[in-house]
C-alpha cells in the first residue's frame, strides 16, 4: 500500500473520539452539543433573523442596516447592504474608553528575538497617523493599495490604515516574485504600494523594495503614484524621486487622529489573489460588513476567545488566514495577540514552543505542514521537542490550510496540547472569509483528521456532479447550499469568472468549494479528501497547476510543453511534479539535472520560490489522447511512482509512459 492510501485507510478506520474537556464545556460561549444545536436550530428557523441578530450584536454600525440578505441578483449576494460601518473602527476605536484601551494588542517577536508590545490605544494612534499619511498622498476611499510587507506591526498598521480611509487593500505574500507583484498591481489598478526595504527571515535579510521596483519597471504600472517604504533594517534602498517615501517621512507631522470613513457594508475591504484551476490568479473580493462579522464571530465561536487569552496565529498576513486571524479577528475581539516575524526553525526548531512559553500563549493556531516539519525536527533532536518548553498556558490548539493526517493530529494533541487542549481543525478557504466547518472547543467531540461539523447557519453538503446529495459514507463534492455573510462577492474585475468558478449551473446554484469530502456514516462528520480541481496544496499554499505550466512554457527558448501534477508528500502534503518536453533532445544525467535547476529557478522568478517543482521529468513528448488532450491522471500515477493499471487504449503514444516513469 502506498503512503497516501495507508494514510487514507487510517482515517477511514479512525475511531478515536476525544470529548471536549468538562471545564471548557461549562465555561465556553457555545456550551456542549446542546449549545451548538440550539444555534443551528435558530438559524434553521429564521435564517435572516439569525444573521441580523448576530450582525447587530457583533458589529458597530454607523448606519444600521434594515435589509439582511439580498438574493435578487444571485450569486452576487449582498448582506446588510444599506448599513454602514468602518472595519478599523470595529477593531480599534470600539475599545477606546473600555478596559481594553490600555491592554496589549500586539506582542511582536522579531526574527532575531526582540520583543515589542503595543497597546490598543497606541495601535489606534499609529493606524490613524499612517491613514493620514495615505490621505496626504492622495489615497482615498475606493482606491486600491497593494501591500508587500513582512510580518511586522507595520504590516498590520498598513492594512488597518487602508480600511480606515475606505481604501481596498491587496496584500501580496512577501515570497512572491516581481512578476506576480506586477500582475497584481495591474489587475487591481493600485494607486500606491506599501512595502519595506527588506524583510528578515531566519537570520537573512531579503529584499522587498527592489522587487517592487522591478515589478513597476516591467511596465503597465503607471497607476502607482506612491511607494511607501518601511525601513525594517538599516540597509540602504534605491529611491525613485517623487514616487517613493519612507514611513518615517510619510508620518512626520501627521496627526495621530483620523476619523474612520464609514463605508457601505458591501464596500470591498480587500482583494486577495489566490490560485484557481485555470489561468491567472483570481482577485477574491471581500465585503466589509459580512467579513467583519465573520472575523469577530469565529474568534468567539471557534476559539472561544476570552479577555485573558494570548492568541497566536502563525500565518502570514499575505494569506487569508493572516487577514482574518491576525489583522482583523483578534483585534475585533479585543484580544492580545502574538505576531511573529520569523520562521519556525530559526534559530532552532523549538522556536514555536519557546515562544508559547515566553508569551504564555493560550490559543495556538498553525498549519499541518509546520507541525509535520517540527515532528521531524523533534524526532531527531530532543532539544527542540515541545516537551522541553513549559506549555501549560495553552488551552486551545488549531489547525488550518490542509488536511491534517491523524498521526500529526495525535502528536500535536499529545506533545503540544498535553492531552488537555482541544484541536480545532478549521476547514475554510480564501473565498470563505473565515471558518466554515470546524469543531467548537467546548462542544464538539473530536476525531483526528476530521474538521467535524459546519458552523451554525452554514449549509454544507456533499453532492454528486448533478448537485444531488450523496449518502453519508460516500465521497463527493463539497458545496455550501446557502449564502453566508463572509462569502466572496466577486472576482475583482471578472464577474463572469466568479459565476463560472463558484456557481456552475449543474450544481443548482450551490457554492462549489473545489474540495472533495466524505461524511461519516454514523456521526455525519466531514472529512476533507483534498482538491478535486487542478489546484495543488503545497505546505498549505494554494497553487494552480496551469499557473506553473504557463510559467514553464514562458521559458520559450527551452521549453516546448509542460504538464504539472501533484503527488502526495509526507512533509508538504502535496509536492509539485512537472513533466517537460524541451525544444532540444531529451536531456539525461548531469545535463538533465542542470536544466531542471535552471527551470526551478525560472519558476521561482516567474511566480515565487513556493512554486518550484520538486520533481522535473523530461520526455520526448507527453501522454496524449488521439484528440491531443494530455492525460493527467496517467501523469499523476507516474508522479506517485505507481505502475499504470488504467486504461491506456485511447493513448496516442503509449511508449512514452516508460520514459516518463524514470526519474532523472
Ligand atoms: C484546504 C486557507 C482540509 C482545502 C484557509 C481548501 C483544508 C484550501 C483545511 C483553501 C482543513 C484548508 N482541512 N483541507 N482544515 N483548511 N484546506 O484559500 O483544500 O489558502 O480548498 O485558504 O485549503 O486554501 P486557502
TrEMBL record:
Q: Which residues form the AMP-dependent synthetase/ligase domain?
A: 102-484
Cofactors that this protein relies on: Mg(2+)
Specify the enzyme's EC class, one word.
ligase
Positions modified as N6-acetyllysine? 629
Enzymatic reactions: acetate + ATP + CoA = acetyl-CoA + AMP + diphosphate
Question: What keywords would UniProt list here?
Answer: Acetylation, ATP-binding, Ligase, Magnesium, Metal-binding, Nucleotide-binding
A GO MF label: acetate-CoA ligase activity
Pfam families hit by this protein: ACAS_N, AMP-binding, AMP-binding_C
Q: How is it modified after translation?
A: Acetylated. Deacetylation by the SIR2-homolog deacetylase activates the enzyme.
- Residue span, Acetyl-coenzyme A synthetase N-terminal domain: 36-91
PROSITE patterns reported in the protein's UniProt record: AMP_BINDING
The catalytic activity of this protein is classed by the Enzyme Commission as 6.2.1.1
Residues binding ATP = 401-403, 425-430, 515, 531, 542
Instruction: State where Mg(2+) binds.
Output: 553, 559
Where is the AMP-binding enzyme C-terminal domain positioned along the sequence?
547-629
Question: Where on this chain does CoA bind?
Answer: 201-204, 321, 539
Similarity comment text for this entry: Belongs to the ATP-dependent AMP-binding enzyme family.
The task this protein performs is described as: Catalyzes the conversion of acetate into acetyl-CoA (AcCoA), an essential intermediate at the junction of anabolic and catabolic pathways. AcsA undergoes a two-step reaction. In the first half reaction, AcsA combines acetate with ATP to form acetyl-adenylate (AcAMP) intermediate. In the second half reaction, it can then transfer the acetyl group from AcAMP to the sulfhydryl group of CoA, forming the product AcCoA.
What name is this protein filed under?
Answer: Acetyl-coenzyme A synthetase
Its organism's taxonomic lineage begins at: Bacteria, Pseudomonadati, Pseudomonadota, Betaproteobacteria, Burkholderiales
